[in-house]
Amino acid sequence: VPIAELPSGINLCHEAFGDPADTALLLMHGLGSQLLLWEVGFCEGLAATGFHVIRYDHRDSGCSTILEEGSAYTLSDQAADAVGLLDFLGVADAHVVGMSMGGMIAQTFAVEHPDRCRSMVSMASNTGNRDFGRPSGPALEAMLAPAPDDPTAAVEKELTDRRLWASVWHDDDHARAIFAAYAERSVQPRHAFERQITAAMA
Fold it and tell me: Residue ranges of the AB hydrolase-1 domain (predicted)?
């Protein structure tokens, strides 16, 4: 999978689908997730409708740069990463779609870089208003609990956690396959996960 080397020193793992001449559609995943959240069939389906689809790992996620312990950043920094990725790819502007934390990054991108944003979709996300859209107690406890070091146990924890907020269409086998692919590709260090939470909550 290609790596974009940004001037900031952050390297972003990314993958594109469709014709680069088409209008770009940038997909931003959520907390503790990876670009694999946006499955290949989904991306190819969007590309077939005439979009140049780009999925990527945020900093501290997947195969992108994992920063040293003690580092810190903001949603603005993560939005700037997205701009840097577009620059690297030679893309002037894009429709931006974000899920959960990715939705918060997408909102920040739209506000701070309006000339690069054709439109913005924020799903299952929040504006930063802590009085709105808060997770339930059990869901928050599950999200903040450290993941086991063992990849198999980590997959099972992720699956158990997701059942707390899954939709009626949730499929355990499908979800397990996705989380196993995450674990095989890259295991997110606890300090990286905590930095993402801190940025989202700031």
Answer: 24-129
Instruction: Say which CATH architecture domain 3-201 belongs to.
Output: 3-Layer(aba) Sandwich (3.40)
Read off the DSSP letter of residue 24: E
DSSP reduced 3-state for 106: helix
Q: pLDDT-based confidence at 130, cuts 50/70/90?
A: confident
Angle at 54 between CA 49 and CA 56, to 5 degrees: 150
**62 DSSP 8-state letter:** T
pLDDT score recorded for residue 52: 99
Closest CA to 200 of 95, 98, 68, 102: 102
Q: In what order do the strands lie in the sheet with 11-17?
A: 3-5, 11-17, 51-56, 23-28, 94-99, 117-123
DSSP class per residue in 112-138: H-GGGEEEEEEES---S-TTSSPPPHH
pTM: 0.94
The answer to whether 107 and 126 are in contact (CB under 8 A) is no
- In degrees and rounded to multiples of 5, residue 136 shows phi and psi of -65, 165
Query: Exposed, middle or buried: residue 146 (CB in 10 Å: 0-12, 13-18, 19+)?
Result: exposed
The answer to whether 187 and 154 are in contact (CB under 8 A) is yes
pLDDT of residue 135: 81
Read off the pLDDT of each residue in 58-81 and give the average, rounded to a whole number. 96
Q: Which of 36-40, 81-85, 116-120, 179-183 has the lowest mean pLDDT?
A: 179-183
